[in-house]
Amino acid sequence: MSDASRYKITGMSCAACQAHVEKAVSGVEGVTKCEVSLLTNSMSVEGSASPGDIIKAVENAGYGASISDAGSGAVTEEELKDTETPKLLRRLISSVTLLLVLMYFSMGVMMFGWPVPMGLAHSGTVVLEAVISGIILIINRKFFISGINAVIHKAPNMDTLVAMGAGVSYIYSIINLIRIFNVCMEDAMDIMMNELYFESAAMIVTLITVGKTLESYSKGRTTDALKSLMKLAPKSAVIIRDGKEAEVNVEEVKVGDIYVVRPGENIPVDGTVISGSSAVNESALTGESIPVDKEPGDRVSAACTNLSGFLTCRAERVGEDTTLSEIIRMVRDASSTKAPIARIADKVSGIFVPSVIAIAFAVFIIWMIAGGELSYALTRAITVLVVSCPCALGLATPVAVMVGNGVGAKNGILFKTSASLEETGRSRIAVFDKTGTLTKGTPVVTDILPAPGISEDYLLKNAYSIEKGSEHPLAKAVIAYAESGNISSYEISEIHIFPGNGIVGNKDGNEIRGGNERFVSDKCSLTDEIKNASQLLSSEGKTPLFFSENDRLLGIIAVSDVLKDDSAKAISELKNLGLRTLMLTGDNELTAAEIGRQSGVDEIVSGVLPSGKEAVIKKLREHGKVLMVGDGINDAPALTIADTGMAIGAGTDVAIDAGNVVLMRSSLSDVCAALRLSRKTLTVIHENLFWAFIYNVLLIPIAAGALAGIGLQMSPMFGAAAMSLSSFTVCMNALRLNLFRPHDPSKDRAPRGFDRERKLLDNEEKSVFSAVKETNMTKTINIEGMMCAHCELSVKKALEALEGVSGAEVSHEKGTAVVSLSSDVADEVLKKAVEDKDYKVTGIA
To answer: Hey, which residues are catalytic here?
Structure first.
C-alpha cells in the first residue's frame, strides 16, 4: 500500500455505493488496483492513472472525491477526526423534536382522543401533520438527494430505498389528504384513520437517522487505538542549539539534532542515546510494560517514556519516519485494504439494491392481483424497501478489521494488510528460523567446569581477566557473565591475540591462555575426563573455551546461543492451537537437534541455505497454510513465499518488507497472540456476515407479508427501526474485540480438519533439502580468525546481505566460506564484507 495514492470519498452511504465507486475507478485506464473503504470513506488507488482522471470517474459515478491530505504518508489527527457524528446528531435532535409533535397529532389525537389545540378541526390536524412531516423530510433531504442521484447514475443505493419508502408514503398521503376535502365526513374520517402515512414517512427517515448516528459513533470508535497512539506523540522537543536548551515544535526537529529528555517526559523522535542512562517504558510500541534500560549507543523511539535518568540523544528518524508514525500508517493502510472474505459481501452488495426494488415492486403487484387493498399492497412494498439493509453487509468485515488491527497495534502486533489478518489465523504449520528467533541470537555462558583442584571463582577471575583484552563475541559472553557476578579481575599485560585460536597474556610473570582445545593443549596436557566433557558440550551445540595458567589447565567455560525464555512455552501453546511446528536452520545437525529438543518443535531441518528454505516452504504448503517466523533479514525468501511471513523481534528497526506481519518484540508469545487475534477477528467477521445475511433473509419475507396468514406482519416504522439497528449491531459486535486478550491461552483449541500429529517431511526429504545448493556459480573465500559457530554466523550474515549472494556455507574449522552467487559479485566486495567483521581474507577462488 505504500505506493498507492489515497483519496477522500464523499456521498457514500452503503456497500452498494462502495461497490459502484470501486467499479467506476477500476475502469479508468492505468488503474491496476482500487480499494474503497466505507468505514473510513477513503479510497486507495495503485497504477499510473492521473488524479484528475480518478476524481472525474468518481464524480461521474455520482460521488465526490479529493486527494487525501495525508496521501500515503503520515496519518493526521484531522484524518481520524469524527466529523460526521456531530452533523447527524444535530439532524437527529431536530427530527425527533418535530416527530414527537407529529405523533401527538397523528396518534394521540386521532387514536386516543387527546385534546386538539384551539381553532384546529380534525382536517386541520392532518394538514399540520403533512407540514410537520414535510419539514422532517426536508431536514433529512440527504436521503433523497443521494438516492435520486444514485438512480440517475444507474447505481441505486441504500438512500434510494429509504427515499422510495418515505417518498411514496408521503406522496400517497398527500393524494389522500386532497381526497379528504372532496368526500363526505364519514369517508373523510376513514381516510384520516387508515389512508394517511405522514407519521410513517417521518418515522422512517428519523429512525434511519438514529441508526446512522449510532453507526457513525461506533465507526468512530474503531479508530480509538490509532487516536490513542497519536496522542502519545509529544508536541514539542527540547533541543540543544549553540550550547543552550531550546523548546521547539516536534515538527521542527531535524535528523542530526541533539535533544534531551528528562525523567517523566516522552521521547519526541527516534534517536540514539549519546550520553546518560535511564529505564524507558516502551509499552506504547511493543505492549511490553517492563522498562528497558538504555545506555549510550542504544536506540530510543518516539512516544516511549523516560522513567528515571537524564538522556541526551541524537535525532535519527523524525516526522513521518518515526517508528510510531510507521505503526500508525501501517494500521491505517491495513484497514484500507480488503480482506478476501469481504469479496463475498461486495458481490452481493453490487446487486442487492436493484434486487430489493424488484422484490418490492413484485410484492406490490402480487398483493394487488391477490385482491388486497391498494393501501395494504403499498404498505407491504414500502416495508420491504425500508427493512432491507445493505449497510450491514458493507460494514461486516471492515469494522472488525479496523478494531482487530487496533488491538494488534496496542499489543505490538502489526498486520500489514487485511488479508494477512485473515490468513494468519488459518495457518496450520509454523516454521521457525533458529538464530534470533527461537534463540537469543547472542552467546551466553552455559557451563563452568573447573579442572581438579581449581575453584570456580579462580577459573572465572582468570578467564575474565584475559578475555577483557578481546572483542570476540565469545569473549563478550564470558565478560558479561563475570560482571553480572561482580567477579574481580587481575592485571593482564602483553596481550596477544591469535585469530582463530585464542588469546595469551601475562599475569605477574605467569602466562594465561584462553581459546580452543588445540590452542590450549599445546601448553598443558588434557585428561580423558576433560576431553570427554568437551565432546559432550560440543554434542549439545555448545562451544567449549579452555583456559590455562602456564602448564596447568584451569578448566572449561562453555558458551552457547541459548533458547529464549519463552520459546518452549510458545511452541507448546502453538501445539495447543493445533499447529505443527518445524525448525528450519542453516546450522549443523548437532546444534539444531539440541535447540529443537529444548524448544519442543515437532520437526527439524538443518544445514539449509536460503534457497533451500524456500524449497522447504513450498513443500510444506502441500500440507496446509504455512506461517514462517524469522528475523526478516536472511529469511526474506522464505518469509515471502510462505502464506504468512512474520518478522519477529523487529523492535525499532521494523522489517517492513520482510513479511505480512511485523512483531515489535522479540517474544515468541506474540506469535501465539497474533494467531489468537486473527482467529477471533475472523470469528467476529463470520458473526457479522451471518447477521447481515440472516437479517435480510428473515425480515424481507415478513415485510412482504409472506407470513400474514399466521398473523406475523411488520409496519414500515418497525422495518425502519430494524434496518437502523442492524448496522449498529454489526459495529458494536466488532467493538467487542477491544475486550479480547490475545495473550490469554486459556481458550486455546485446535481447529478442525488438520491432523497435527501427521509427519510433514520424512528423513529422505529432509536430507534432500539439507543438500540443496545453488546451481549458479560459487566462490570459495579463505578466511583467518574464525574460531566458533558464532564467527561462522557473523560471516554468513555479512555475505548473505550482499546483493547477488544467494547463500553462504561457512566453516571455522576449514577456514572457508563457500558463496553461492545469483549474479557476479566482485572479489573486493566479498573481501570487504568479511573484513568489516574483523576477519582476514587470505584468498578468493
So the answer is: 433
